[in-house]
Amino acid sequence: ETRDLEADFERTVAAEGRIEPRDWMPEGYRRTLIRQIAQHAHSEIIGMQPEGNWILRAPSLRRKAILLAKVQDEAGHGLYLYSATETLGVDRAELTEKLIDAKQKYSSIFNYPTLTFADIGVIGWLVDGAAICNQVPLCRSSYGPYARAMVRICKEESFHQRQGFELLRTLMAGTDAQRAMVQDAVDRWWWPSLMMFGPADGDSPNTQQSMAWRIKRHTNDELRQRYVDMTVPQAAALGVTLPDPELRWNEERQAHDFGAIDWDEFAQVVKGAGPCNAQRLANRRAAHEEGQWVRDAAAAYAAKQARRTEG
Ligand code: 3HC
């Protein structure tokens, strides 16, 4: 009986079909989806903090309105992804506890500080650009709820990237000091944005199985390469230099060669020893505790509604 179910599952995945919540799935498939989608959701929620830091400091009402819309989008992406995770039998309250207790991860990129307003443009251009490279293939992930969540999220991410690039182009057309502010932000965010794609393929314990289950459609290094090749001409159009002296076009490979990533830094940040890890988790814990009354009120209201409908 299970053998038939397993054969069905394998056939569906091999035929680029969709696995839906009520379908039979191997325990490992469920577990790795919960791991990846929960951590993706955590990344969206934690990602609100670095940008939120500039909502009250935005240089104009227009920039404040754009940034507010973007941070609200990230919150929405997080809720979307928690809903997708809940179709696998876990509850977002449990996932939030795991995040706050550092038992689940979120993207390393959000552990760096946003020191100037140019960081907001660079996050839009580079971080959301990297996220787009990583998320577009996930629209073809074998798990239905995840793939469908990605379609909506990718549409909003492209607005995020365009507003970031436009913000930087405005600064680059400004004063020397503004141009220097942009270059400083690019220097600080370039290498961490490469680390968003995860460890090198040879050091990735999950890639092979995730590719076989068509959760992942490309490996970490393939997507990282795609991101570099996409970004180099954009940096030229912007008039900034990417901080990698080994970055150059390789005619033979038809791709850019680039320097070595500092995997010690990556490991440190993933382990929790990055510049802002403690602050990000402390803020998330505080927001969760301070929000208890909202959850209680919503639950009380729902119970009252239920009593009313029961009559
Ligand atoms: N930060 C933190 N942890 C990372 C990481 C990073 N940048 N890259 C990899 N890791 C972790 C993995 O989670 C895994 O640990 P785990 O087994 O405890 O979960 C370990 O390092 C080994 O990495 P693998 O490559 O084996 O793990 P995956 O196969 O899961 O690949 C991934 C990592 C490419 C991030 C993949 O999980 C993925 O595509 N996730 C969905 C996309 C995502 O989470 N993006 C976050 C970017 S932020 C974002 O999108 C928000 C946007 O609004 C900017």
TrEMBL record:
Enzyme nomenclature, EC number: 1.14.13.149
UniProt keyword annotations, A-Z: Oxidoreductase
Pfam families assigned: PaaA_PaaC (PF05138)
GO molecular function, one term: phenylacetyl-CoA 1,2-epoxidase activity
Protein name as it appears in the record: 1,2-phenylacetyl-CoA epoxidase subunit A
